[in-house]
Design a protein that fits this description.
81% helix, elongated, mainly alpha
């Protein structure tokens, strides 16, 4: 049971990291006018990714100001999420796997 919960949490963190990367790339494409938000599909994807990533990125954006107009909070958020995924999550679930099997 513990390994299943670990798998789900690990996968969700991986999907969140992927969503942050795709959201950053889409914001660049919109800023450089490569894609247009008047397209309903693109607008829906951008709104969905913004709704998913905004709660994660907002605390980092409060602490880290934009440097020369460039927002580096997604990079810091990805580093923190990778640290949680690689170090904290196994540290939490190792004792649970020993108890539950």
């Amino acid at each position: 049971m513990a390994s299943f919960v670990y798998f789900i949490l690990d996968s969700l963190l991986g999907l969140l990291i992927l969503a942050i990367i795709v959201s950053a790339i889409l914001s660049w494409l919109v800023a450089f006018n490569v894609i247009n938000l008047r397209n309903q599909f693109v607008y829906g994807v951008v709104r969905f990714l913004d709704a998913v990533t905004r709660p994660v990125l907002a605390p980092f954006q409060k602490v880290i100001p934009p440097l020369g107009g460039v927002d580096i909070s997604p990079i810091i958020a990805i580093l923190v999420l990778q640290g949680i995924k690689l170090y904290l999550l196994p540290m939490i679930f190792r004792p649970l796997q020993g108890l539950l099997g």
